[in-house]
Design goal:
about 400 residues; alpha+beta; Aminopeptidase; 2 domains; 13-stranded mixed beta sheet; 13 strands; about 30% strand
Length: about 400
């Protein structure tokens, strides 16, 4: 591990260590890392489990490298910030028209940025050091920094930095959705309002009625192996809307090797839904301490109208409620991560507003890109609203139909 300093600023007993590979960590470091994540009990921190972060996250198709910042106070781990560096495509559009496309390097936050047991001066010191490190890494890798789904209590929610070093953009906001585990699935259903409770039961009945006794769900607790899951999920991916898309962690190269490790460590939970002994849907998530993160789901489009995706998701929620004993004194969360849709609002009982932030050099390509994007988005919205207010949208639609 490599200790880093911030010139001109010293706070007694606080140090930050930069780690780029799990091999740089000693066994005591790994124990401290895992213990820290258990103590903070934050569902966003699931992706910061060392084995998951350094193996599965590193295995994602676009990821080039990783680095994490460990904050120590009196030699005790009190903060953790993790990042991945990836090569991503960017497109500048005006409405549906593509104007500019290119690839660039992005430094993206992973999991929760967490700092505990520190005073305000110490927090300011750590914040400045983290921002300085991010600026250094961005310069080294010719990259911009994307801080995703930053919550209000996060140290980097309103980052402080020298204006001439970075340009700061606040992008569209987002939300993370959670449901709080109850003692069992029946108690969970009773906690929902009448409308959502009826809808959940209806989703279950609809699928069960459509396929009667011709379906089954296999999971890692019932002996589903990593090899069988990879084979079945690959079949499902080819028949799902995700076919050909980059971003499925299940379809990424080398995932089998890492999945086997995660199952052995009891971190990964895998599910396959079969109809007439053929796989039609899969789901995967990660469990750590009291919390569970729902990573990915996909299903055969032929079964979409039967509600196969909803049925499998509800079944995962039911399985986790009934199979794992949880203390009522400790809050346990099922996290659906970032992004809004109908089923998340139906199943969850809370959502947290977040914001997405970007830092980049003021004279970089990404700075020009985001300035142009902001201008074009506002111009397109103004043009669209003007056309609608003048009643021209109907005439234009008819004219295009005639052509």
């Amino acid at each position: 591990m490599r200790d880093v300093s911030c010139e001109g600023l010293l706070v007694e007993d606080i140090r930050i260590t930069l780690v780029k590979d799990i091999e740089e960590l000693t066994s005591s470091d790994l124990v401290a890392w895992r213990h820290f994540l258990q103590e903070i009990n934050d569902p966003r921190a699931l992706f910061q489990i060392p084995e998951l972060y350094f193996q599965s996250v590193a295995n994602e198709e676009r990821v080039k490298s990783l680095f994490s910042c460990l904050v120590f106070k009196s030699n005790e781990l009190v903060g953790l910030y993790t990042f991945k560096i990836q090569h991503v495509p960017k497109k500048l559009k005006f409405g549906h028209f593509n104007i500019w496309s290119f690839y660039c390097n992005e430094i993206r936050s992973v999991g929760a940025g967490t700092l505990v047991d520190c005073t305000k001066p110490e927090e300011s010191f750590v914040e400045l050091k983290i921002i300085t490190l991010l600026q250094q890494q961005a310069k080294t890798h010719n990259a911009y920094v994307f801080l995703e789904a930053i919550e209000k209590n996060d140290l980097l929610y309103n980052p402080q930095f020298k204006k001439h070093d970075s340009t700061y953009y606040e992008l569209d906001g987002s939300q993370t959705f959670h449901l709080t585990f109850k003692p069992n699935f029946d108690a969970y259903l009773q906690s929902k309002n009448k409308k959502n409770r009826h809808s959940i039961k209806k989703d279950l009945r609809r699928f069960e009625k459509a396929f009667d006794n011709e379906f089954s769900i296999k999971d890692s607790y019932s002996g589903l192996s990593a090899n069988e899951f990879i084979e079945s999920s690959s079949t499902v991916l080819l028949k799902s809307w995700k076919k050909g898309l980059v971003g499925s962690i299940v379809g990424s190269e080398g995932f089998l090797q890492h999945l086997s490790v995660l199952i052995e460590l009891d971190i990964a939970r895998i599910f396959i839904l079969e109809v007439e002994n053929k796989p039609v849907a899969f789901a995967i998530g990660y469990s750590f301490g009291n919390n569970f993160f729902y990573e990915e789901i996909a299903y055969d489009e032929v079964f979409a109208k039967s509600g196969v995706g909803s049925y499998l998701t509800i079944s995962v929620v039911k399985s986790l409620h009934n199979e794992v004993e949880r203390s009522e004194d400790v809050r346990s969360v099922f996290s659906f991560g970032v992004g809004d849709n109908i089923y998340k609002r139906k199943l969850c009982d809370e959502y947290i507003d977040c914001k997405n932030l970007m830092l980049c050099s003021p004279r970089s390509k990404m700075s020009a890109f985001f300035q142009a994007k902001q201008f074009l988005d506002k111009s397109y919205k103004l043009l669209r609203n003007t056309i609608i207010s003048l009643g021209l949208h109907t005439k234009l639609r008819q004219k295009f139909k005639q052509r």
